[in-house]
């Protein structure tokens, strides 16, 4: 003799055999009948619901697994990459321009124009003149008449 739960399990495995067996379960256990036999009385609906529940559970599991591997890959790329070099120290424009304008005939004008160029370009070429290739931005700044703005 089968127990009530074994028959219910068999219904999930073979839903077409037990298509209209709700009346049988109603006499045995009304609580089980309310769960097995929904509004239409077909256990195939329960079978579909079990499949959709399994599908939803596997989708959630797949999403968590994908999230785990994505985070692991990010950690590997962070740890495997060499650390970036520290940012360059900000230049002290006053000291740099004092050195640049040391031999100028008009040191105040030179320091003022050098200071504005230094603030914009964040660099000053070495030496008292020339060496513009060391700081291309400094060399490219010009006045309205296309003369070099920076000394």
TrEMBL record:
The chain crosses the membrane at residues 7-26, 46-67. The lineage of its organism: Eukaryota, Viridiplantae, Streptophyta, Embryophyta, Tracheophyta. Keywords: Gibberellin signaling pathway, Membrane, Transmembrane, Transmembrane helix. InterPro entries: GASA. The keyword S-adenosyl-L-methionine does not apply. The keyword Transmembrane applies. Belongs to the GASA family. One of its GO terms (biological process) is gibberellic acid mediated signaling pathway. This is Uncharacterized protein. It comes from Gossypium raimondii (Peruvian cotton).
